[in-house]
Amino acid sequence: MGSSHDILALVSPRPVILAALLALAQCEHAGSRVPGTTDPEPTAVAAPIPPRLVVLIVIDQLPSWSFDPQRGALEGGIARMLARGAYWPRSAYPYATTHTAPGHATISSGTTPSVHGITANRWFDATLGRQLAVDDDPKAKVFDPRGSGTLDDGVSNARLQVPGIADALHAKHATSRTIAIGWKSRAAVTVLGRGVDLPLWFDNGAGALTTSRAFTEQLPRWVQEFAARTPVAGLTSPWTPLDAKRVEALAGGPDAAPDEADPHGLGKVFPHRAGEMKSPNKALAFTPQANTVLVDAALAAIAAEHLGEDAAPDLLAVTFSPHDFAGHAWCQESWERVDHLLRIDRDLARLFDALDAKLGRDAWAAVLTSDHGARPSGARLQARGQVAPLFFTQELETLAESAAGDALGPGDWVLGVTTTEVEMTAAFAARTTDDRNRALAAVIARLFDRGLLSVRRTDSFDSTQPGACVGDDVSALVCRSIHPKHSSDLYLVAPEWALINDDTNECTAHGSPWAYDREVPVVVMAPGYEPGVRDTTPSMLQLAPTLAAILGVPPPAAALAAPLPPRR
């Protein structure tokens, strides 16, 4: 990596050339090495009889550093996968923007944000003058699961620029069904790709799972029936630890450790009573009871959609977003987050037992991973003598606005700052090139002086060019995070162990290029995969090709890497 005060050459924004991005992806898939890929040559997966159903499990915010020491305490579905499957303790995302939506899009497509276009969970749009959620789409109204109408929100995956694993499966098997179930809409709509048949997510206002008109003309009857028989009011009994002694041992300390937050009034210590909170639906999302709802929905989908019942393989994704909410609020090292993992393990055992009974033990397969990791808590870092500064986006926005004002005079120059980017306003864009260059240089210098490791102009990276984004250093990780259509003017990188956050009421977060955010576990329990622990660190770009190989179909069109090798 170059100098930390790296003010790159000032150049005018390049044109958006999606065809060039896809051409580059296809070129790299054809033979060049993908950073972090330990087995770049194509590897045939020995699966003479592909499973009739593949279950993709994504546990949101499950860093390798946290999961691997705790896996020995698991006794349910995850334990079964570890015993019968191939386990890669550390698989690395080869980009810097380690957030939920980019991670799910990469799992689906096998490529990086610079190609699939999902660069963050949300970003500022200077043309609209506001912040956009990645899945915001006013044209795709969300169904009200309580009746026949729609809600005010609109959700789709229209910003996903390339096909995913659902598209690859449908290209070979038109009758295959692809269902994605998650608490977060941005996870459900991206985890299987543009061609997902039915993504379902939880709507706080309606208090139930639903989908939008982007994916179906009407809400399936079974989803309405599931909502009717799963009222949130019946799911908010007090949350207490499944096994307090085991939880304490795995957490490495007492309940209510330093830095823990109090999300929605749930408190810092057990028990937590979501049903008594002012916003019980929002509070429920922080509890393991929400994960149980997702597994119940998966079981309902398996029955209603007839998954795995014919020769055309089906694909079911379950993404456990409540685990992420708990990590953010109470820390990765908390009793709450550990109890989430133990209960997910138990719920997955219930799901797997049901699949055994319905399809037979060898007729289905499962793959488990995470969309990103997380930073250890500040208190734990400080206890071991590690400096762990905090940067809040509102403070950075104030500094950026001040610096731009010093260069250009009074005005509204900064639209907003996220945990990774700075977006300037339309008024800024209307200034001359010399003015913009001078102001951006001033902003970069001011933010660097505040303590950021690096502030980069996004128009200094051109991922459409052959040889771009090469290497494993921070500059390359940032390059693979930038998409010309969806990225802002500046990209922010904080020092290792520091944290840029937009929420002052959180214990931890993620989104950096450092290993604790990029490295996550992968477990593959599928025909042809030899059980055991692997000592390599593969790229997460290999997961979509692995899913394709298990399903017996070609990889998604933009996938960059070979499947994970089935043997040690």
Largest sheet: 9 strands, mixed
**Cα distance spanning the termini:** 33 Å
CATH topology of the largest domain: the name is Alkaline Phosphatase, subunit A
Say which CATH homologous superfamily of the largest domain is assigned: Alkaline Phosphatase, subunit A
Strand content: 15-25%
Q: Provide the structure class.
A: alpha/beta
Q: Which class of the largest domain in CATH terms?
A: Alpha Beta
Mean pLDDT: 91
Number of domains: 2
**Total beta strands:** 19
What portion of residues is helical? 25-40%
Radius of gyration: 23 Å
Structure characteristics:
568 residues; alpha/beta; Gyrase A, domain 2; Alkaline Phosphatase, subunit A; nine-stranded mixed β-sheet; four-stranded antiparallel β-sheet; 20 helices
Structure notes:
The structure is a single chain. The protein is α/β, with parallel strands linked by helices. It folds into two domains: 18-32 and 390-493, Gyrase A, domain 2 (2-Layer Sandwich); 53-121 and 165-381 and 514-551, Alkaline Phosphatase, subunit A (3-Layer(aba) Sandwich), CATH 3.40.720. It is built from 20 helices and 19 strands. Strands 9-8-7-10-1-11-18-2-19 form a nine-stranded mixed β-sheet, sandwiched between helices. Strand 7, helix 7 (185-188) and strand 8 form a beta-alpha-beta unit. Helix 9 crosses helix 13, helix 11 (288-304) packs parallel to helix 13 (335-359) and helix 15 (393-408) packs across helix 17. The model is unreliable at 1-33 and 36-47 (pLDDT under 50).
